[in-house]
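Before relying on records like the one below, remember that each one covers exactly one chain. Contacts with other chains, cofactors or solvent are not represented anywhere in the record.
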Amino acid sequence: MSPHREPPGRLFIGGAWTEPDDGHYEVIDPATEEVVGQAPEASRAQVYAAASAASAAFPAWSRTVPEERAAILDRAADLIQRDAAAHAGVARAETGATAATALGMQVAVAAARFRRYARGALEPVETGLPPQVNPAGPMGRAGVFGALAVRQPVGVVTCVTSYNNPWANAAGKVAPALAMGNTVVVKPAPQDPLSVYRMAAVLAEAGVPPGVVNVVTGSSPAAGEAAVDAPEVDMVSFTGSTAVGQRIAEVCGRGMKRQLMELGGKGAAVVFDDADLDAAVRGIGTTFSFYSGQICTAPTRVIVQRAVHDRLVEKLRTYAGYLKVGDPGAPDTVVGPVISAAHRDRVESYVELGRKEGARLVAGGDRPSYDKGFYVAPALFAHCTNEMRVVREEIFGPVVVVVPFDGGEEEAVALANDSDYGLIDYVWSADVARAFRVARRLRAGGVGVNTVGRNMEAPFGGFKKSGVGRDVGSYALHAYSETQAIVWSG
């Protein structure tokens, strides 16, 4: 069968579509609860075979000239754009994302990332260092010593992707890894793997040699565990929960494997009393409106100065009330379902917990009266305290909690930093000097000042339990590199 087609229900190993050893499992549309497709169940032996195929392909791929790798990644971007509507349809069906999000934030972002790392393949990998004059000694004769720092590919990289954005998240790992000359084993989240198999077919059509990209799936943790502990794997790039990331890190530590971890978040949005509240509401409201809050960068934890607490809460309540919850295929839908029945139940349990803890539920949190689908109405809690579990724990759903503070910068910073997480925080204030001053003190890998927008060349990653390492832009090329020193005597 042609590697340029994506047959249903098969693994992609060593450039061939392969029947799974352990059968198939159903992929469910979160909006309709209907079966979208059958995903293959890889055995541990098949995952190991994928790692072996990647290892066998590494020597030749790592020696390809950068221009060749760039051309392949560019073609992949073209091919993704060629069939964007079909790709977006599958992504919408298996993730529950709205049609606009599936096309504009999943498929289109994936194409942009392949395009970006086609350029990235051409970025210099050598940095000249100042010469050093060494006197004669135990190490040899006197001389002038030159040096280069050279970035080399790591080897075989296992890419474990999250369920909230199968196209963009996978592309954000695979594209820079390939650009640097690595080979990959991709283990998608079990909930929405079909998009990643489509990406594998795109890469095969673009000219990626057999074994350079491999995709394996499974409904249980077993396939992911094998993809991490396979002996040929040199690095693991993981996006997902902190708990799973900690288990992966233990395995990587035993094998001295490199790690790139983008883990949980509980983004603090610090709102001062001079802030443009409407702008703050539009930013914070993305927790409700963007992929039903299933996004680790969401500003879910609002820390607001007491003087504007009630006004901000009322504006957020009004904002949430305007959002249409329902069929993600409808053009006017803003909030679609969460990924699964189990996750809906988890989000609802946190809403009930918030009530018990004494937070005031201002809006939402109930289950919309649809016959099918895993829906949760956007929930807003006010008058929260930092000790509440709904404030401290990542819910990963359309739930915003509001914590008031009475003091100034010191109290705001202390409350924001009183968290196990530190991925992206936010500051809203009309005093830009204060906003930047506070931003520098926040223990987070990124801070948005009066915006939730991203600069896609800026480093991305977390402090504390939100992750290890940085990617995006050229930082991703460094993340998928080993640095080698070459020294010579002049």
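The longest helix spans residues 99-120.
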